[in-house]
Amino acid sequence: MAEAVIIDGVRTPFAKSGTVFKDIPAEELGRLAVHELLEKTGLDLNTVDEVIIGTVSQMVDTANVSRIISQRAGLPPRVPAYTVNRNCASGLEAIGSAIEKVRAGMADVIVAAGVESMSTIPIFYYGKRLTELLMETSKAKTLVQKIVKFASIRLRDLKPNIISQTDPLNGMRMGDTAEVLAKEFGITREEQDTFALMSHQRAVAARPQLAEEIVPVYLPPYYDNVAKNDAGPRENQKIEDLARLKPVFDRRNGSVTAGNASPLTDGAAALLIMNEEKARAMGYKPLGRVRSYAYAGLDPARMGLGPSFAAPKALDRAGMKLSDIELIEMNEAFAAQVIANEKAFPSKKFAQEQLGRSEPIGEIDRARLNVNGGAIALGHPLGASGARLMLTILYELRRRSQSIGLVTLCVGGGQGAAFVVERR
To answer: What integer pLDDT is reported at residue 163 of this predicted model?
Structure first.
């Protein structure tokens, strides 16, 4: 079996939805990331075998957004492309799919990426009756027939339907699932706010390091302004300000606020994955490789515990223990969700009752966890987050001359993802 390696990667800055990237659709954010990756690596475009891109909220007018991105990024028409969706793990799904294709000998060079424009996700739609009437109007053969059909539209048909933001499996919003974990694990509001503050402080301190991953984005309409850094980290964030925020999901008894949750975010990240022998023949020095990975399913109402279910499977497949891991990147969907995993990982009771394992996963050392801050500060552009986590940990392992890392996140709908990565 061939070995797959990750050569390099880039990402756009991450920006809160509705702000500087609000006029840049997902296909353009993705194009920017892929184009800059190809430029940065100096890759011969004719060597690319495939493009795989993860995203969550695909627009109807940009179906298979991967193909649109790959062509607009300048790749030859002969290069096929497809889009994957595993909710928040979509970026990791793209990477995993690329690795498996290389290992199976089906490809030597693949661009894997993740992208999300949460600014452009529709918030409402019109009902079936209006759609049918407009379709019938368009098919009418004469002007009179068109007028008759159009005249049958009533005001009630123009009332928009709000798109639900709840999980169809349980009717809960993602923040509601964080509240479930906060109550189940006895996580206080103070613990959550303290964790959120740490995320901001670390992200602000790590701006020079994070800049190594980021390519600037010139902003429409005049392209005279440029976004160079993640917009989310707040230099003057204070615990007192976080404490003043009111709960969003359970307004009476809750503890999850806008301050201790990840914001809605736009962004893209892309990585180059190659057959190791081909990479060496072409003169590339890899950033690292994926040693193992795993996905796990769990109760959708407790989806935030996804890392606790997926990580032990990935570690087993790598022949490792948590104590072997030097850095961890865990997506910060909510502070309560990360803290719940911090409590579940070392719990023997959790291991025995929930995982069917005799021993716990192990203790998470915060000194090794999200050392450059996480999604609470940086943002969580759904389809791009997994790719960003992979890029961030590989760069940080290289900076520290360390070898082994764990990338993990929870997935809406009740799943978890975990990748063990290594630098040789």
So the answer is: 67
Which residues does residue 270 pair with via DSSP β-bridges, in sequence order?
Answer: 10, 113
> Which among 186, 230, 166, 169 has a CA at the least distance from the CA of 204?
230
Q: Is the peptide bond before 76 cis (omega within 30 degrees of 0)?
A: no
203 Cβ contact partners less than 8 Å away, ≥ 6 residues apart:
210, 230, 232, 233, 372, 373, 374, 377, 378
Other CB atoms within a 10 A radius of the CB of residue 143 amount to 8
Give the whole-angstrom CA distance, residue 121 versus residue 123. Answer: 6
Regions of the chain with pLDDT less than 50: none
Residues forming beta bridges with residue 217, ordered by sequence position: 227
Structure-token pair, residue 193? 């706010």
CB 90 within 8 A of CB 121: no
Which two structure tokens, joined as six digits, stand for 73?
Answer: 């990024």
pLDDT at position 162, please? 67
> Right CATH number for 4-121+263-419 from 3.40.47.10, 3.20.190.10, 2.60.40.730, 3.20.20.100?
3.40.47.10
Write out the E strands in 278-392.
289-297, 327-330
Between the alpha carbon of residue 105 and those of residues 54, 155, 315, 334, the distances in Å are 22, 58, 25, 39
Model-wide pTM > 0.90:
yes
Domain ranges across the chain: 4-121+263-419
Among 294, 310, 419, smallest CA distance to 355 is for 310
Beta-bridge partners for 273: 6, 110
Based on C-alpha coordinates, what's the Rg of the chain? 22
pLDDT at 213: 97
Cα–Cα distance, 117 to 24 (Å, whole number): 8
Query: Tell me: the pLDDT tens digits for 89-118?
Result: 999 999 999 999 999 999 999 999 999 999
Q: Determine which helix (DSSP H) or strand (DSSP E) holds 170, and give its type and residue range.
A: none
- Give the three-class secondary structure for 57: coil
Half-sphere exposure of 411 (CA within 13 A, CB side): 29
Selection from 197, 200, 192, 180 nearest residue 336 by Cα: 192
- pLDDT, position 4: 98
Catalytic residue numbers, as ranges = 88, 380, 410
- What pLDDT is stored for residue 123 in this prediction? 67
Is 272 exposed, middle or buried (CB count within 10 Å of its CB: 0-12, 13-18, 19+)?
A: buried
